[in-house]
Amino acid sequence: MNSSKIFTVTDPWGLTYSFTSLPREEALRLIAAHNGKDLTQFSSKRLDSYYYILDDNRVVSVPQGPDAYVFDSYAGFLSNHQTSRMYIAKHIPNTYPIHRIHYLKGGRKLYYDIISRAEAENLTAGLEQRLIRIAAGRERYYYLLSDGSVISEIRYEEVNKFASFQDFADFEDYHLATYRAVQEGNIGINQMCGRNPYGAQFPEHVDELCSILPALLNAPARLFNNTPDSLSRLDHYLYQHLITDYFAEEVFLPLLAYIGRIHILHLGGAWHMVYDKVWDNWAPDIQTADGRLLMIYNPLLEILDSREEGECWITLKSLV
């Protein structure tokens, strides 16, 4: 008895595709018969959920449970992935030291490392813990090493290591300023602090930023055809990279520029620069015809956050 079920779907962008549900065992035989290759950017060992592309361009989804799914094409699979918010694997650094970038007011970037608790304890063995008072009622402990670098208070399994005391103090000053802004109900757009060196002139640099994106993602230039569908194909290249702070620093503004340009071309709207007086920063945004600000930078920064690893990550196409 054939227990397969066939579903036909037309997505919001007009693509019609079909997929079939079938028993997991049958799907595994199909993968073997058609030289299935693991789509590692989507598969998740932790969730026991895997995706394979076959030699005839079909895609087999093998999640947990007794059923599996066969999509009639890779394009159909990508569309289903985007519209149903299927899981996609995202990988971040997990070996120490982990290099971090912290963005400060005025566009300055602070570079520091995350080290393990064991290494921090080894480096600070025999050293006296020092105290810095950063505000009334707020103080921090730290260790000053012989080379001038600073290790913050050892309380958790991961510890911050700064190149200098000044970097440590500036890091704490930023968090104090954020705390005060929250208390005053005026947090501003702190996630964009220091990320836009072009200021209010960002829209004038959109073409320039888009032009460097193929090299940054190691993707063929022909894929960048300024359509929403191109974003589905770019997921493959984006999530093949290890999402580090340094990688995010390189691709954030070019991706924002490209996604924004696609939105304007296909859905309307225009670039709108928002000045944040708290952080003295200009945030590039898309304003729709009815005046709404889309804040595309928020989900894009979530995608590029090197501190959060997992499989439930939104696709680039969903930002349009």
Topology of helices and strands:
Blueprint: E1 5-10, E2 16-23, H1 24-33, E3 37-38, E4 50-53, E5 59-62, E6 67-71, H2 74-83, E7 98-103, E8 109-116, H3 117-123, E9 130-135, E10 138-144, E11 150-152, E12 158-162, H4 165-183, H5 206-211, H6 213-217, H7 228-238, H8 245-267, E13 270-276, E14 281-287, H9 297-303
Antiparallel strand pairs: 1-2, 2-6, 3-4, 4-5, 5-6, 7-8, 8-12, 9-10, 10-11, 11-12, 13-14
Order of helices and strands: EEHEEEEHEEHEEEEHHHHHEEH
Tally of DSSP helical segments: 9
Biggest sheet, spatial arrangement of strands: 1-2-6-5-4-3
**How many β-strand runs?**
14
Structural class: alpha+beta
> What would the CATH topology of the largest domain be?
Four Helix Bundle (Hemerythrin (Met), subunit A)
Tally of discrete structural domains: 3
Overall pLDDT confidence: 87
Taking the sheet with the most strands, its summary is: 6 strands, antiparallel
Q: Any idea of the CATH class of the largest domain?
A: Mainly Alpha
Q: What general outline do the C-alpha atoms trace? A: globular
Report the sheet-strand fraction: 15-25%
Low confidence ranges? none
Q: From the alpha carbons, calculate the radius of gyration and give it in angstroms.
A: 24 Å
Which architecture name of the largest domain does CATH use? Up-down Bundle
Helix share, percent: 25-40%
How far apart the termini lie comes to 43 Å
